[in-house]
Amino acid sequence: MDNATASNTPSRATIDPKEAAHFGALAAEWWDPKGSSAMLHKLNPVRLTFIRAEIDRHFSTDSRMLRPLSGKRALDAGCGAGLLCEPLARLGASVTGVDAAAENIAAASTHAEAMGLAIDYCHGELGTLGLSGYDLVCSLEVIEHVTDKALFIGQLAEAMADDGLMFLSCPNRTPASRLLLVEAAERLGKVPRGTHDWNAFATPDELRDLADGAGLVLGEPKGIAWSPTAGLHLSDDLSLNFIATARKK
């Protein structure tokens, strides 16, 4: 979908052009573990540990299976250059990745092709793409960047099958996240300047209410914490960042 189409449907728009431009400018470095997306490379294994456990629980698959998503369809909304899409494809899913930045989709497509992975990448506004029936719907570190959280989560719900599983993650709006994720991380160059707007972060209670409004039940969130000894890790501490499942009511 092009920008002209998006501008003709403002009531269904969730893309912030400034956010899309910010992340699109980082596309060339997205797959560099020492580049501007280095923090995502460290975060990804932690998120995948949670995702794999919940996939096995929801779909009753064995944790030893290499391809538990074989025969299933997965959607990653706000996919960037495909850091989550590619592991989902390796788990056996037929994957669709959607992103607001055309530069990210180009980088994602090029990398997937080089890896020998067939992933369907789309650039545009989620609600206009007619996506539906996905067994797995993911949107990680994206909700804080959209213009309308309720509309966006509603669109995610529309794309998911009735018996599907959703994954959502978001920085929590706390004093700790303001200090570490915004002030320290950006000033120390751990993430690019302007990546985070602390006021746009959602608390677990707010995300639960948003999910409820979209006809979803949010699972118990798990924190993604940081310590000097363990680095990023799953935790009961939700003060920095959290990840949760959601299912249709």
UniProtKB/TrEMBL annotation:
InterPro entries per the UniProt record, alphabetical: Fumarate_lyase_CS, SAM-dependent_MTases_sf, UbiG_MeTrfase
Entry's Gene Ontology molecular function annotations: 3-demethylubiquinol 3-O-methyltransferase activity; lyase activity; polyprenyldihydroxybenzoate methyltransferase activity
Superkingdom, natural source: Bacteria
Biological process annotations from GO: methylation
Pfam families: Methyltransf_23 (PF13489)
Alphabetic keyword roster: Methyltransferase, S-adenosyl-L-methionine, Transferase, Ubiquinone, Ubiquinone biosynthesis
CDD domains: AdoMet_MTases
NCBIfam families with a match to the protein in the record: UbiG
Family annotation (PANTHER family): METHYLTRANSFERASE (PTHR43464), UBIQUINONE BIOSYNTHESIS O-METHYLTRANSFERASE, MITOCHONDRIAL (PTHR43464:SF19)
Name this protein carries in UniProt: 3-demethylubiquinone-9 3-methyltransferase
